[in-house]
Amino acid sequence: MTAEQSRSPSSVAQSFYTRWATLYDALARRAPGVGSVRTEAADALALDPGETVVEMGCGTGANLPYLAERVGPEGTVVGVDFSPGVLDVARERTREFPQVHLVRADATRPPIRPTDAAGVPHDPDALLATFVSGMFDDSAAVVSSWADLVGSGGRLCLVDLAETTDPRWRPLNPVFRALVRATAPPGSRTMRASPTKLLNRRLVAAHRALESRCRVTHETTHALGFARVRAGVVE
Ligand SMILES: C[S@@+](CC[C@H](N)C(=O)[O-])C[C@H]1O[C@@H](n2cnc3c(N)ncnc32)[C@H](O)[C@@H]1O
C-alpha cells in the first residue's frame, strides 16, 4: 500500500485541491458558460441586501463576488471549504469584499452559526453548493442537514455536473466519463472504479433530497445537459 493509499479520501482531496488550486481556479472561472451558470445560481437564491448566505465547498471563491454583490456591504457571505490552498486563492479574490468570511471546515459537519450586528446568532438565509455534491458519500444526508441549517423559509441552490440525459448529446457521455476519471482526486479509490456512476448516484441523491425538503423554485440544465441548477425554499 502506498502512503497516499493509506490516507483518508478527505485528506487526499484536500491535498489534491490545494496542489491544483491555481489550475482549478482558471477552469472554475473561464470554462465556457460557467460565468452565466454562477450568475443564475446566485439569482436563484433570491438574496436581499443585508442577508446571510453560506457557500459550502466554495473552492477558490468563483461564486463569492456574485453573492457579495447581492447581499451588499451590510450582508454576510460565509465561504466554507476544507482545502487550505483553495481558501488562499478565495481570500485574495474577495479582498475588496469585507462582508465575505472564509472558514476552513468540513461542509458535511458545518460549524456555522452566523451572528447579527449585535452578536446574536441566527440561521443563514440561503446556502449555495456548486460542483460539490458529488464528493459526499451520503449526499442526501448532507443536503438535508443544509436544509436544517437554513431552516424553514431558507433557500438552497445546488449546481452539479453529471452525464447528460439529453438524447442529442448522449454520444458525448464517454468523453465526460474520461474527463471525470482524469480529474477525480486520487484518494477516492472507489471513484476510480467507476467515478462517473458514483458521481451520477450522488448527484441524483443530493437533488432528490433538495426536492424532498424544499418547494422547488428553479430548475434548469446547461452545457448540453451536463450541468444542472436546482433551487428551492425549505418547507
Ligand atoms: C470541484 S470543487 C468546486 C469549488 C467551487 N464550489 C466552484 O464552484 O468552483 C470542490 C470543492 O469542494 C471542497 N470540498 C469537498 N468536500 C468538502 C468537504 N467535506 N468540506 C469542505 N469542502 C469540501 C474541495 O476542497 C473543493 O474546493
Known CATH architecture = 3-Layer(aba) Sandwich
Order of helices and strands: HHHEHEHEEHEHHHEE
- CATH fold type: Rossmann fold
Q: Give the structural class.
A: alpha/beta
In angstroms, what is the radius of gyration? 17 Å
Average pLDDT over all residues: 91
Number of β-strand runs: 7
Termini gap:
47 Å
Q: What is the domain total for the residues?
A: 1
How much of the sequence is in beta strands? Answer: 15-25%
Percent of residues in helical segments? 40-55%
Q: How many distinct helices?
A: 9
For this structure, what is the CATH homologous superfamily?
A: Vaccinia Virus protein VP39
Please state how the strands of the largest beta sheet are arranged side by side: 3-2-1-4-5-7-6
Low-pLDDT parts are: none
CATH domain class: Alpha Beta
Describe the largest sheet.
Answer: 7 strands, mixed
Assign an overall shape: globular
Pfam families: Methyltransf_25 (PF13649)
Protein name: Alkanonic acid methyltransferase
GO biological process, one term: methylation
GO molecular function: methyltransferase activity
What's the helix and strand layout?
Layout: H1 9-19, H2 21-30, H3 34-44, E1 52-56, H4 64-71, E2 76-81, H5 84-93, E3 100-104, E4 126-130, H6 139-150, E5 155-161, H7 173-183, H8 189-193, H9 195-213, E6 214-222, E7 227-234
Parallel strand pairs: 1-2, 1-4, 2-3, 4-5
Antiparallel strand pairs: 5-7, 6-7
Helix pairs in contact: 6-9
Residues 13, 17, 28, 57-59, 62-63, 80-83, 86, 106-108, 130-132, 135 line the site of S-adenosylmethionine.
GO molecular function, one term: methyltransferase activity
Domain Methyltransferase: 53-113
Protein name: Alkanonic acid methyltransferase
